[in-house]
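Quick one, tokens below. Sequence please?
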């Protein structure tokens, strides 16, 4: 597959897989649970609006007031005192994140009176599911006792979207989404009391009733006017505080009532005053200044009941209570500060597809360092962009899938792809080099940390030299290209026998080949593998001759001993081969086959200690260029494959050879002549028959001793 097409296909695969996963509910949950938290962690804590204050009923207040750990049993006279203190301090709005659902007649009267006196108190409802039957549930709204509800400005529930992770809240609820929740009630009251003059004037002009609590326009009239006359929002101006609040109100009624929290920090980031400081003693001026003109929420904190997790939620910064979340929701609405997903489902699909495609292209760089660096730079740029958008505008682009899935997959693909590319290149180089040098040496050359010594090494080994008969005549009769193809097929038959027996081919010149086995001296298995390779070569070449319709008999010579194995040549060019007397002797033995009419000749020492092969002693020969004779044997076959007559024939031949070597040429001639009649194709029998006859004719014409002298250029006939 073309590399460019592969890059594009992988990029499309990565992008499409991420984009499809991004459409699943699991991806949405993952993004909210990890991606959004990660953005908050990057941004850190920020300054909350000063106009929201919480009065926290915490563990210290419980101990200081001796009111106990059960919220339902706290005396409502304490809450009545808290309302009076807040009203006296000038708090604009007071909201209780506490549900007063159980009636306490005497205490309710005192609290109701304090609420009426303040005229700016909002109470909390409790919305719960009521089981009907089977899997059927219905919403049930639990309101404060009537005496308290009638004295308050309004009552509404504070609703979170399900889950322990406090990510979203509702601004409206009900079947038609027309009923405001507690944060929305406080926003509307804040607008009616402190801002939105154009909106208030228009609402008051259409209102025929009397003023509401505190002389404010009723909430339903305020909302109705805004929805009917949205141009009043533009007239007010969106850059003012009232403009932000009007915009938050309009967005809630005209759009999605679910808003994401924009958390300011860990619990207590929004100004928090312990409950007991408010109700004990007199309100000091500093405390009064903290409460004057503020929206104050009263409720239980996360450490009120330290032995339970009931009512505890988790923000990206810390565990928080419902009070902290309600105050955060109110502050978000007053500032119109919220977290908004940057993309809808369709745009997110396209974005994840594009991002994955881009990373897929970067991951296919040939250099792993370049590809990895590009991916890391892209991830850094993405993260910086996400952090800037989130911090400045509350815009939330996907984090989990692009950074925690697509980036690691792209990096892994870069590493794996580079590894596979290098592995392919390594295999190509290795396949080329191993044609000329052994596998272990090729591995040393390919790895740069290795050092190959050009001096070579001295080792024990077996050398096998081969040559093809009739090659010269064949080369004369064939075109060079056809001859080359034929010889490639020839060596394709020869080489497997060598490599299959753990040898390596050191030289190939025309029709001649040299193969080497190296190891420890005395290693019988080393010599056994070389002998097996010679027999397999002869068998393979018989099939080759039949398949190609030619006669190309092979001659082989084998010898063992010390040899130098290494590079031969200069530093800029060399060949890896074996040199030494062992190699030369093997080549001379190969040439001796032509004189004796044999196929495989060995130095006799090669077979010492090895059983399983049928061999025939052929006597001693003083090979060309050598001063010491070599005892030569012929390798015939595996013993189990030998014909029945062959062992007897070998015994008769070796008996005749002993007569020849003792100088009893007449007796030797008689025996060799008889064998030649029975085995006319046997070359060594014909050779010694003629040699014995020659010595009878000229007893003094041969060399002293029993060795037969040969020539380097053309094997000499014995005298």
């Amino acid at each position: 597959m073309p590399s460019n097409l592969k890059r594009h296909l992988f990029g499309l695969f990565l992008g499409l897989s991420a984009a499809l996963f991004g459409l699943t509910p699991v991806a949405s949950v993952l993004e909210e649970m990890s991606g959004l938290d990660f953005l908050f962690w990057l941004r850190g804590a920020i300054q909350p609006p000063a106009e929201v204050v919480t009065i926290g009923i915490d563990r210290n207040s419980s101990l200081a007031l001796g009111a106990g750990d059960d919220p339902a049993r706290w005396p409502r006279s304490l809450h009545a005192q808290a309302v009076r203190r807040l009203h006296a301090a000038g708090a604009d709005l007071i909201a209780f994140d506490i549900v007063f659902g159980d009636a306490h007649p005497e205490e309710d009267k005192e609290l109701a009176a304090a609420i009426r006196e303040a005229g700016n108190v909002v109470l909390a409802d409790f919305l719960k599911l009521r089981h009907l039957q089977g899997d059927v549930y219905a919403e049930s709204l639990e309101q404060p006792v009537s005496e308290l509800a009638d004295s308050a400005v309004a009552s509404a529930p504070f609703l979170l979207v399900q889950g322990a992770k406090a990510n979203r809240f509702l601004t409206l609820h009900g079947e038609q989404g027309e009923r405001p929740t507690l944060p929305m009630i406080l926003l509307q009251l804040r607008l009616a009391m402190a801002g939105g003059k154009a909106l208030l004037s228009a609402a008051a002009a259409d209102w025929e009733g009397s003023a509401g609590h505190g002389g404010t326009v009723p909430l339903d009239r305020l909302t109705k006017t805004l929805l009917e006359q949205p141009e009043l929002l533009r007239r007010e101006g969106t850059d003012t505080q009232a403009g932000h609040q009007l915009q938050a109100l309009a967005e809630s009624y005209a759009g999605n009532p679910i808003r994401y929290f924009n958390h300011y920090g860990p619990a207590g980031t929004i100004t928090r005053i312990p409950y007991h400081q408010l109700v004990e003693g007199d309100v000091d001026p500093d405390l009064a200044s903290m409460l004057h003109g503020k929206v104050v929420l009263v409720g239980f904190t996360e450490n009120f009941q330290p032995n339970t997790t009931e009512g505890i939620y988790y923000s990206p910064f810390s565990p928080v209570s419902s009070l902290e979340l309600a105050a955060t929701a109110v502050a978000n609405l007053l500032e119109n500060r919220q977290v908004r997903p940057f993309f809808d489902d369709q745009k997110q699909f396209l974005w994840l597809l594009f991002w994955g495609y881009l990373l897929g292209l970067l991951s296919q760089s040939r250099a792993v360092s370049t590809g990895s660096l590009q991916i890391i730079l892209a991830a850094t740029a993405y993260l910086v962009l996400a952090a800037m958008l989130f911090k400045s505008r509350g815009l939330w682009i996907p984090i989990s899938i692009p950074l925690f899935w697509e980036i690691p997959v792209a990096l892994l693909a870069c590493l794996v792809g580079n590894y596979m590319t290098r592995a392919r290149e390594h295999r190509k180089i290795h396949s080329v080099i191993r044609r000329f040098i052994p596998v272990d040496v090729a591995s040393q050359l390919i790895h740069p940390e290795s050092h190959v010594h050009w001096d070579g090494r001295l080792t024990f080994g077996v050398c096998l030299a081969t040559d093809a008969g009739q090659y010269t005549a064949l080369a004369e009769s064939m075109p060079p290209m056809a001859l080359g193809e034929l010889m490639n097929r020839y060596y394709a038959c020869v080489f497997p026998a060598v490599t299959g027996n753990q040898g390596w081919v050191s030289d190939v010149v025309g029709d001649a080949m040299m193969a080497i086995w190296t190891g420890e001296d005395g290693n019988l298995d080393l010599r056994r593998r070389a002998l097996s390779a010679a027999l397999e070569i002869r068998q393979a070449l018989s099939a080759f001759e039949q398949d190609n319709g030619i006669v190309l008999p092979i001659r082989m010579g084998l010898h063992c001993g010390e040899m130098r194995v290494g590079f031969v040549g200069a530093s800029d060019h060399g060949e890896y081969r074996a040199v030494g007397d062992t190699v030369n002797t093997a080549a001379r033995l190969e040439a001796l086959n032509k004189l004796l009419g044999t196929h495989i000749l060995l130095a006799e020492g090669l077979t010492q200690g090895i059983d399983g092969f049928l061999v025939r002693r052929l006597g001693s020969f003083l090979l060309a260029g050598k001063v010491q004779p070599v005892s030569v044997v012929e390798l015939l076959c595996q013993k189990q494959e030998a014909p029945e007559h062959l062992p007897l024939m070998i015994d008769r031949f070796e008996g005749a050879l002993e007569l020849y070597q003792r100088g009893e040429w007449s007796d030797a001639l008689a025996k060799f002549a008889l064998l030649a009649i029975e085995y006319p194709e046997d070359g060594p029998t014909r050779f010694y028959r003629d040699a014995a006859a020659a010595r009878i004719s000229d007893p003094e014409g041969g060399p002293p001793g029993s060795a037969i002298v040969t020539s380097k250029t053309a094997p000499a006939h014995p005298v």
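The longest strand covers residues 554-570. Residues 208-216, 448-452, 713-719 have pLDDT under 50 and may be disordered.
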